[in-house]
């Protein structure tokens, strides 16, 4: 049997209402914060990601779907959206027409990670990027925005982790101190951390090894080496969160897996979805736009994984409203009136009523079964004695009551046709 590729998933009609529900809430909240939607292509030239996420990160070094197209251009399916948004921002000189661009997106992403619960190779993110201001209030807005979406979805068992990575200059100084400390414990580090020690020392904080974590407990903290400006920036972010009654904890090991961050980083994690617990993550990136060839412009943003949010909602037993119910199912009583069912259906559908009917030449009983399966609010019987009297028999499927309705006014032409056929 042909199957979908490992780590990819079909979203079937039985589940689609969950996705629509989440996306509707997300769009409403983005709109109330005045973020405007942006859509970028599913693939970019590889350098867009290479130059932004960082060569030594897991994403770039092992997870990207990269290939040469027929004209020998190196193409990559987007593993994240920030770099793509920044590329579009620069290309369309968006900073010229507006000094602050608040953008949001909902899009599939691609990373060749080992599939497991909550981790896919094609997954879906929504996120926001605010380009043009270095205000710490905007960092706080991004965190509040992400928090509010998760709260509006009803997810409860969450915690908000925040950190500050400061500016590259203090980070470089800190890396030397960290390296001095870790050298003393080098032989006890995991193989993975030894590699990170050489290539990207801060990423050692992401290590899952308990031995590494034990060593890291006594490591110097970057927060102790931030410059005055960064400390002040971070203090305002924390104050705004407190004012908004958002509980957070400062996690100095929150370095995140992408190289472009400066100042604030954050993640909201769930206790309901197992090891892949990050529902969303983000932070500030004041050097990225310049790094990709644009004018120096500060930015801050976040992205959330929709699969993980839905999983958290399912695991916490949060219901997903389903408005897929049919308004009416038309049951054909007389086979020779099938064309009228079609016409009547059109009139109702044209006025926004959700209607369906049989195409399989089924018996009346089977049509009623179908109406039940579709959870139709009403059944309209087409044909029979009532029909020759100019009325339709309507059954309310919720309370079982039946009524006759006169087909009138705007349906008059239809009645004429219906009558004519008798
Ligand atoms: P990220 O932490 O790599 O950040 O991804 C954000 C979220 O996407 C994660 O918290 C997780 O919910 C989801 N996610 C990531 N990888 C997978 C996967 N393989 N399967 C399922 N879900 C996944 C970024 O992508 C940054 N661009 C966020 C950002 C925006 N920073 C600033 N602006």
Task: Provide keyphrases for this structure.
422 residues, alpha+beta, Rossmann fold, 2 domains, 8-stranded mixed beta sheet, 16 helices, elongated, disordered C terminus, binds histidyl-adenosine monophosphate
Fold and architecture overview:
This protein is α+β, with helices and mostly antiparallel strands. The protein has two domains: 16-167 and 227-315, BirA Bifunctional Protein, domain 2 (2-Layer Sandwich); 328-421, Anticodon-binding domain (Rossmann fold). Helices cover 38% and strands 21% of the residues. It has 16 helices and 16 strands. The chain has helices at 16-32, 47-53, 58-63, 82-91, 94-97, 136-152, 168-183, 191-199, 210-217, 228-243, 288-291, 306-315, 338-350, 364-373, 384-388, 412-420; strands at residues 36-37, 43-45, 66-68, 74-77, 101-110, 122-131, 158-164, 249-250, 262-270, 278-284, 299-305, 328-332, 355-357, 378-382, 391-396, 402-406. The strands form three sheets. An eight-stranded mixed beta sheet has the order 1-5-6-11-10-9-7-8, with helices on both faces. It has a five-stranded mixed beta sheet with strand order 13-12-14-15-16, sandwiched between helices. Helix 6 runs parallel beside helix 10. The model is unreliable at 413-422 (pLDDT under 50). The protein binds histidyl-adenosine monophosphate. The site of histidyl-adenosine monophosphate has 26 residues, from strand 6, strand 10, strand 11 and helix 12. Histidyl-adenosine monophosphate binds at residues 80-82, 111, 113, 119-120, 123, 125, 127, 129, 257-258, 278-283, 301-305, 307-308.
């Amino acid at each position: 049997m042909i199957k979908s590729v490992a780590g990819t998933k079909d979203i079937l009609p039985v589940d689609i209402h969950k996705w629509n529900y989440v996306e509707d809430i997300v769009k409403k909240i983005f709109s109330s914060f005045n973020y405007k939607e942006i859509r970028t292509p599913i693939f970019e030239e590889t350098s867009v990601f290479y130059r932004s996420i960082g060569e030594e990160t897991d994403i770039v070094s092992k997870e990207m779907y990269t290939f040469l197209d027929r004209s020998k251009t190196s193409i990559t399916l987007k593993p994240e959206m920030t770099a793509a948004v920044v590329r579009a921002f620069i290309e369309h000189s968006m900073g010229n027409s507006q000094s602050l661009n608040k953008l949001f997106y909902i899009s599939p992403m691609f990373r060749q990670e080992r599939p497991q619960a909550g981790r896919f190779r094609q997954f879906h993110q929504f996120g926001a990027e605010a380009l043009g201001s270095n205000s710490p209030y905007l960092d706080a807005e991004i965190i509040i925005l992400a928090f509010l979406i998760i709260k509006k979805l009803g997810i409860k068992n969450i915690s908000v982790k925040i950190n500050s990575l400061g500016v590259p200059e203090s980070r470089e100084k800190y890396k030397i101190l960290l390296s001095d400390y870790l050298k003393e414990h080098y032989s006890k580090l995991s193989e993975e951390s030894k590699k990170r020690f050489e290539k990207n020392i801060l990423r050692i904080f992401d290590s899952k090894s308990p031995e590494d974590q034990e060593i890291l407990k006594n490591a110097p903290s970057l927060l102790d080496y931030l410059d005055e400006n960064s400390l002040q920036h971070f203090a305002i972010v924390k104050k705004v969160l407190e004012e908004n009654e958002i509980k957070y904890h400062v996690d100095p090991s929150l370095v995140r897996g992408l190289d472009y961050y400066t100042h604030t980083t954050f993640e909201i994690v769930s206790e309901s979805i197992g090891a892949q617990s990050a529902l969303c993550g983000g932070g500030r990136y004041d050097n990225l736009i310049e790094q990709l060839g644009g004018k120096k412009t500060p930015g801050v943003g976040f992205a959330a994984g929709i699969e993980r949010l839905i999983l958290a909602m399912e695991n916490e037993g949060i219901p997903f409203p389903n408005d897929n119910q049919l308004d009416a199912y038309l049951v054909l009583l007389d086979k020779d009136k099938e064309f009228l069912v079609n016409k009547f259906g059109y009139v109702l559908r044209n006025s926004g009523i959700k209607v369906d009917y049989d195409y399989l030449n089924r018996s009346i009983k089977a049509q009623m079964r179908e109406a039940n399966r579709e959870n139709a609010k009403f059944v309209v019987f087409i044909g029979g004695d009532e029909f020759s009297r100019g009325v339709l028999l309507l059954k309310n499927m919720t309370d079982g009551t039946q009524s006759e309705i006169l087909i009138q006014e705007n349906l008059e032409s239809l009645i004429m046709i219906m009558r004519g056929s008798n």
